[in-house]
Specification:
- By secondary structure, the protein is α/β, with parallel strands linked by helices.
- The chain contains eleven helices and eight strands.
- α2 packs across α3.
Length: 251
């Protein structure tokens, strides 16, 4: 296992793909999330690669390599769009991350704090976030709506962006309880000055429902799958117009 991960690190057998984050009013890409893909055997999911790297003590090296690879494409991304990078709490304090971010426009960077490891000391994390924020870097917490842990992260970390989990957005048009929770998140985000991004949007009906609740930024297969640069966005159905079977068939 360690040998396979060393092979990935030594041969750069990883690449970045980018999923668009779209403003539903302007139909423009306001951000992209960088995701890692592995071009080597054995075939396994990216999550499995990162989990197994952590098991053998190579998690930080693999994370840094993934971030470095994503940053190479920042100038090829849509003008004005931010680049969202998945980053564990331990990497936030690393010198390697600091050096990489010193070489790019920090106002275009969002660090999406992942939950691979439990955060035991929020005080030290908050100190690090304060330093990076002064450079113009923003922070996101994902998986909102998927459980207590993510909500606790939001309360403690006070992110600039809150990402609603696919567990909440999936079939939200059919679930009053999900709509109620999403509405509460819209209110909460407005109170604390955070932006909301709905992840995992796959159907026009989900999109219409989220838009009706006041969510303006969305991400998911309906808008665009993870892709190489240049990043493009699918046609976005409008809230004012009913979604016809023809539109659904074209997406």
């Amino acid at each position: 296992l360690r040998r396979a991960i060393r092979f990935v690190l030594g041969g750069q057998r990883l690449r970045s793909v980018f999923q668009p984050i779209v403003d539903v009013d302007s139909r423009e890409i306001v951000g992209v999330e960088a995701l890692t893909r592995f071009d080597t055997e054995p075939v396994r999911s990216p999550a499995a690669w990162f989990a197994e790297a952590a098991e053998v003590g190579l998690g930080p090296e693999l994370e840094i390599a993934a971030i470095r690879t994503a940053l190479l494409s920042i100038d090829d991304l849509p003008v004005g769009a931010y680049l969202s990078l998945n980053c564990s709490p331990s990497i936030l304090r690393s010198n390697e991350l600091k050096q990489m971010l010193d070489d790019v426009d920090s106002t275009r960077i969002v660090l999406e704090i992942t939950e691979h490891h439990e955060i035991l000391d929020y005080t030290s994390i908050l100190d690090t976030l304060a330093v990076l924020r002064r450079q113009g870097i923003r922070f996101a917490v994902d998986d909102a709506g998927s459980g207590y842990s993510s909500l606790n992260h939001i309360l403690e970390l006070q992110p600039d962006i809150i990402k609603l989990d696919i567990a909440l957005t999936s079939d939200i048009d059919h679930h009053p309880a999900k709509r109620a929770l999403a509405t509460a998140m819209v209110t909460f985000a407005g109170e604390v000055g955070a932006s909301l991004v709905a992840e995992g949007v796959e159907t026009p009906q989900e999109l219409q429902t989220l838009m009706s609740l006041g969510i303006r930024s969305v991400q998911g297969y309906l808008l665009g799958r993870p892709q190489a640069t240049p990043v493009t966005v699918n046609d976005v159905p409008t809230l004012a117009s009913p979604v016809s079977p023809l539109v659904v068939a074209s997406l």
